[in-house]
Specification:
binds (R)-mevalonate; alpha+beta; 16 helices; four-stranded antiparallel beta sheet; Alpha-Beta Plaits; single chain; 4 domains
């Protein structure tokens, strides 16, 4: 039976587990053992993980895989991917190999500006607010100098602050809309600290602005927060080759492959039901690298999907064309990533993942992540428009089903062999395993 508890966060880890077990698993003998088997035997490593969040009771493992052979702007990479979904890493590796033999991926960072906003309510004359803003703007920048000093030294900082009138959407609603360059940091803490300082200065200085009436002086700050919509923090990834080079076997010409592939992309450009799945496949690659490198995949997801809808309709993030016999497949996406700060210096596996990628700058990481997304989409569309995806998926899924039914090594070997020439649906695998067991008993 569920019940409430006061002061849970103050309990020790072991008392927290006791409460969980007593409340939700009173009849279970192994709940504690399941939780504890994921604890790290190295106490300080476990403590590090415990302290990433609050109320930690155990660790949640995801596999960390690698996809080798990615040639990006003529440099080779092995890309780390943290993901639970079978066949994502295999698909990335296949796409990497395919394009390795055709010149590799070409990428370019288009822009790196990030946005933050102070949302506020002002009840008064807009002209006076404009005058106040132009007077206070230098002070807004000045009073953040302790926060921005280091970032400025390295060439980043606050780029600009605008006053935006949003009263046509909500009565008396305005914004300070600020842009930032945060270099190798994702920049969330930096941006939010600047914004909170802007808000303080903006509210305080208004009290002394002599053109304001008493009501106008009372600026009401609603909130100060960065935006995860970063359409001006944009990266492009692309592959291209002669159409003939796309053919891998005599049965399908390069042209037939390209035509069908482009049709599949075009469908995702116009049909939102398809576009969402198409883009989900892109995010399989993107999220896995974002997670492995200690970045915020929720921020990336939110920003990317908003970008996919920027024309008022949800669309494909990738595009494809044939021109002068050259097949080109490309994507431009917003990615706010960091290679310093946050988890990057803390989580041992994140450090290792970044070292594997030759310690990239944030700009380099944007390019690698975009490539992982483009490669994933290429692999998905290639399967979907030729063999279908179930063939590859079920091969990987077969192992998951066998593990779920605790197949031993001998059973695995027999059934992997059996399903080389039979379709591996869930029920077929279960049935084959049952048959095997009853024949052997
Ligand atoms: C599965 O995780 C992703 C795909 O559905 C993507 C797609 O359909 O393009 C295969």
């Amino acid at each position: 039976m569920s019940k409430t508890i006061a002061g849970f966060s103050k309990l020790s880890k072991s008392k927290k587990i006791d409460w969980i077990v007593d409340t939700y698993f009173p009849n279970s003998k192994n709940t504690k053992a399941i939780l504890k088997q994921y604890w790290n035997s190295n106490d300080s490593l476990q403590q590090l993980h415990d302290e990433f969040i609050e109320n930690t009771i155990t660790n949640y493992y995801l596999p960390l895989g690698v996809a080798p052979n990615f040639l990006i702007n003529n440099k080779l990479y092995t890309i780390p991917m943290a993901i639970e979904e079978s066949s994502v890493v295999a698909a990335a590796s296949k796409a990497a190999k395919f394009w390795l033999e055709r010149g590799g991926f070409k990428t370019k960072v288009i822009s790196t500006t990030k946005i933050g906003q102070v949302h506020f309510i002002y009840k008064g004359d807009f002209e006076k607010l404009k005058q106040y803003f132009s007077q206070v703007k230098p002070k807004l920048i000045e009073e953040t100098s302790a926060i921005t000093k280091n970032m400025k030294k390295r060439g980043g900082g606050i780029m600009d602050i605008d006053l935006r009138n949003k009263t046509s959407d909500i009565a008396n609603y305005y914004q300070l809309h600020a842009s930032f360059e945060t270099l190798d940091a994702m920049g969330a803490n930096f941006i939010n600290s600047c914004l909170e300082q802007f808000a303080k200065t903006f509210k305080n200085e208004a009290l002394n602005f002599n053109l304001f009436s008493e009501t106008e002086r009372q600026i009401d700050i609603v909130m100060s927060i960065l935006s995860n919509y970063v359409p001006d923090c944009l990266v492009r990834a692309e592959v291209s080759c002669q159409v003939d080079e796309l053919s891998e076997n005599k049965n399908v010409s390069g042209k037939a492959f390209a035509d069908k592939f482009i049709q599949a992309v075009n469908i995702a450009e116009v049909e939102p039901y398809r576009a969402v799945t198409h883009n989900k496949g892109i995010m399989n690659g993107i999220d896995a690298v974002v997670l492995a490198t200690g970045n915020d995949f929720r921020a990336v997801e939110a920003g990317v999907h908003a970008y996919a809808s920027r024309h008022g309709k949800y669309r494909s993030l990738t595009h494809a064309k044939v021109e002068d016999d050259i097949f080109t497949f490309w994507m431009e996406i917003p990615l706010a990533l960091g290679t310093v700060g946050g988890l990057t210096g803390l989580h041992p596996l994140v450090k290792l993942a970044l070292e594997l990628l030759h310690k990239p700058s944030a700009k380099e990481l944007m390019q690698i992540v975009a490539v992982a997304g483009l490669a994933q989409n290429f692999a998905a569309l290639r399967s979907l428009t030729t063999t279908g995806i179930q063939q590859g998926h079920m091969k990987m899924h077969l192992m998951n089903i066998l593990n779920q039914f605790e197949a031993n090594a001998q059973e695995k070997e027999t059934l992997i062999d059996h399903f080389k020439s039979n379709t591996a649906t869930h029920s077929a695998v279960v049935e084959a395993l049952e048959n095997l067991r009853s024949n052997n008993s």
